[in-house]
Design brief:
The complex is a heterodimer of chains A (106) and B (339). With 106 residues, chain A is an alpha+beta fold. Chain A is built from 3 helices and 5 strands. Chain A has a 5-stranded mixed beta sheet with strand order 2-1-5-3-4. The chains are: A alpha+beta (106), B alpha/beta (339).
Chain lengths: 106, 339
């Protein structure tokens, strides 16, 4: 279990213990966190699980694959801290991760 | 008014195989899809990506799977209504009256929704002011390129559509090409061509910028674009084009009185029928305990929904289960001579 904090666009914060091996996206979906749609179910085909990773965490994450960067081009208002949460697998190293959710996913 | 035994909404793999199942048991059907081609997500999202979990096919791409399904439908004459989205569904005396956004009307006892995650729509710009300029100064697709002649056009996006249009329109227009990062995901030859035009000052390239604001009263007069480092530039422009790919939206389906769960439709697992008699949902769009969003599940769901259609389409006949290996009727429908 690692603690992941999801901060909604309106500032509401949810800290959840997510089982290692799940993705940050799955942690949100299983706990009904509003603001992550994940239309394609985690296959990196839709960009509706887009999150902004807190700056201090961004460089600690595994690097993006090309496909993820391409998909982020289609996300709603991406910035340099954007990631697709379906591509972030929860491990002990991610314990304490904070992600912010965009105002909408599409 | 087109009369048919079943109307399928969605021409993805599930919709295609469902059509096959309907025709096999002797029902006719027509298919409507909002995209301009057959194949659904397989063609739109991952035509080149290999799929490894189609039974008996160790590996195939989305495009290959689509082509195989189309080939499997070849014995049958099925009418596809592409570039059309079903907007209205009304019950009239136990039959469904269906209307598309192109005005096509259907009358059918059965509607099978094989809509994936909804219909594909262009992804739009973020700033709210953009809405009022849509289809006047701001476009997400191009129908008539002559309106851009001798004008300044600002194009956003990093894929093939953005690059192709930047190159094409640079012949007669002043082009700003704006993209959120340095890399483009278009074909390398297209990227090279764009870079040549940039050197020749036919295209002004702004990377790591995104649209911040649009200004103008009736028409767009200028746009503010913001760099990753927050620096803002103002560009005079007559038109703004956005090519950010397509998103999937449930769309009008939400208004048909169906029992929805988020973006999916609840069905039973016997007929894959919704809470409305004669409306079924199969594939990614349906939901039931244990639902898997796999193509193979869609095939199973379509096969069962097709059998359920029989009862409403042929109320005075009894459906008899038959195997393709032995049924003369089925072989006849497939155009195979039996001995």
């Amino acid at each position: 279990m690692s603690k992941i904090t999801y901060i909604e666009h309106n500032g509401k914060s949810h800290s959840i213990n997510v089982q290692n091996g799940l993705t940050v996206m799955e942690g949100a979906i299983q706990n009904n966190i509003p603001g992550i749609d994940a239309d394609c179910g985690g296959s990196m085909a839709c960009a509706t699980c887009h999150v902004y990773v807190k700056e201090e965490w961004f460089n600690k994450l595994p690097k993006k694959e090309d496909g993820e960067e391409d998909m982020l081009d289609m996300a709603f208002e991406p910035n340099k801290f954007s990631r697709l949460s379906c591509q972030l697998t929860v491990t002990d190293e991610l314990d304490g991760l904070i992600v912010q959710l965009p105002s909408k996913q599409m | 008014m087109i009369k048919t035994d079943a109307l399928i909404i969605g021409a993805g793999p599930t919709g295609l195989f469902t059509a096959h199942q309907l025709k096999l048991i002797g029902l006719d059907c027509e298919v409507v899809d909002n995209l301009d081609k057959i194949g659904g997500q397989c063609i739109e999202l991952y035509p080149d990506k290999p799929i490894y979990d189609i039974p008996a096919i160790p590996e195939c791409t989305g495009e290959e799977l689509t082509n195989s399904l189309i080939k499997q439908l070849k014995p049958f004459n099925i009418k596809f209504h592409l570039n059309e989205r079903v907007d209205e569904v009304k019950n009239n005396n136990g039959k469904w009256e269906v209307k598309t956004n192109q005005g096509t009307l259907f009358n059918t006892p059965n509607i099978i929704i094989a809509g994936g995650v909804g219909s594909f729509e262009p992804r739009k710009f973020g700033p709210k002011e953009c809405e009022k300029f849509e289809e006047k100064s701001i476009f997400y697709s191009i129908k008539d390129k002559t309106i851009f002649k001798d004008k300044t056009v600002s194009i956003f996006g990093g894929g093939d559509s953005a690059l192709d249009w930047a190159i094409e329109l640079s012949k007669n227009s002043k082009i700003n090409l704006i993209h959120r990062r340095d890399e483009f995901r278009g074909a390398q030859s297209t990227v090279d061509k764009m870079n040549e035009l940039k050197k020749a000052q036919k295209i002004n390239l702004y990377t790591k910028y995104q649209l911040k604001n649009v200004k103008g009263s009736e028409k767009v007069e200028s746009i503010d674009i913001e760099h990753d480092n927050k620096e803002v530039k103002n560009l005079k422009t007559d038109f703004v084009l956005g090519f950010f790919g397509l998103i999937m939206q449930l769309g009008p389906i939400a208004n048909w009185g169906l029992n929805l769960d988020k973006k999916t439709i609840n069905v039973d697992t016997e007929k894959f029928e919704t809470n409305q008699k004669g409306i079924y949902a199969v594939g990614d769009i349906c939901n039931y305990p244990g639902k898997l969003k796999l193509i193979l599940s869609g095939f199973h769901e379509g096969a069962l929904a097709a059998r359920a259609c029989f009862k409403l389409a042929r109320p005075n006949e009894k459906y008899r289960f038959e195997f393709t290996t032995s049924s003369k009727n089925i072989k006849k429908r497939l155009g195979i001579k039996s001995d």
